[in-house]
Amino acid sequence: MSKMNVQAGSIKDFRQNDEPLGLFAFEEGGIAAPFLSNAAKKEINAALEDEGFKGKAGETASLRASDGETSRRLLVVGLGKKKGFTADCQRKAAAALFGAAKTRFKSIWFSAPGDLQAAAEGLMLAAYSFNKYTEPCKDRKLESAVLLTQKAGEKSKAQAALERAALFAEAVCWVRDLVNDGPSDQSPEALMKTAKKEIGGGVTLKVIDKKEAEKLGMGSFLAVGRGSSQPPFMLHFTYKPKGKAKKKIALVGKGVVFDSGGLSLKPAASMETMKCDMAGAATVLAVMRVLPRLGVKAEVHAITPLTYNMTGGDAIKPGDVVKASNGKTIEILNTDAEGRLILADALVYASKLKFDLIVDLATLTGAAVVALGNDVTAAMTNDRAALQKLLGVAKKTQEQIWELPLVEDYKKQIKSKVADLKNIGNRGEAGTITAGLFLQEFVDAKSWIHLDIAGPAWTDGGGDYCRPGGTGTMVRTLLEYLTTL
Ligand code: BES
Ligand code: MN
Ligand code: ZN
Predict the structure, then answer these.
(1) Region 249-253 average pLDDT
(2) Catalytic annotation, pick one of 176, 340, 467, 476
């Protein structure tokens, strides 16, 4: 991953150099820069008007002007209208500032009227690029940005927001790296080793290998790995805060390191992006990586079943019946509905450890993309009050989540003639919900939230602060949720 350093700096230091300054402007009222004299502001606004700059969201202008004392390069980014302005508008505008500066300057100063954490996140997330298999982008110069603060008290507050942004961005960018990595380079064992290495102190790890999983009766989880020569692993990370934990929370993430569909093979085009099928696992691992440094007060566990879904000689076959660790038998009618099979045993495992809340994240169904597209995560829950809290947080982080109902009557779709359950519902009928209902059969907890991130986990075209590839969706929302508990 390529990084971007964002620090707070004082007006005194600012005056001592002539580095470029990034400013933001609403459509109404021109640039926001409380440290400039009215005369300087007036002159700059007149110059912007002369350039035809309107302040529309994402619009940029570059001009040389006097800031009242020094003549320097100004990079001005539009914020759009004041009405409807959100932290995410600030995040996007900061990403546009990165774009305007990246090939021209090594370091810039900036001042932002909106949420400081969001501004810093915008710069850092926009700076991400995946360079494992290529030379890092040669024309990129920008390495650091300094947030201009006026008073001493302001500086330490800003510093805290920037540190938080750096941890959030580190986690998001790590998910992107993990998702973007080639699927043969990232076997369950390789991902386990990476996680062990990168998730530093303050967190303990228990590895459940194939033998241990057999002992625990995880027949559903183990079934999926049978088509691969590489063994599956289930990881269980634990974070305990100093002092008594306020809450005990489990994060469970689907970790199919590549989903070929198995014998119910996917068409070639659908397989192209299936290295993203471990995005749920990557998300919860990334959360664990930064939790200790954020001083989270809850006890948090991450549980990730990791496996390939391949077509080897011993692969599961449609018609096979397997038994999960809660004793329920499952008829596998489609080997491509594998996510629910590995999550079943992970959810049973989590249920036994008695959490106040279990949240699972999974690129689970193509039907979620049909229902909600690529920008919206589908949520299902047995505790709507708990979900409501998470939705409130997501509103703040501006990652879109929409609830789907766990329709009781659709349970008959996953009844099997030869086992307790079958792993698919009726073709073309609420596939995201029947997957959720299937998972619910393995949850024994008062509060459980299932997030189907099949749409938002990946982007073909990229976005304001995201390159094409893995997105790191839901990391910011989970971190915000956990840090405000
Ligand atoms: N990993 C896929 C779901 C997926 C699809 C994720 C598109 C991201 C983008 C999952 O394992 C899958 O194949 N689901 C099947 C379920 C079906 C066989 C009941 C699907 O959605 O087609
Ligand atoms: Mn599948
Ligand atoms: Zn899958």
Answers:
(1) 99
(2) 340
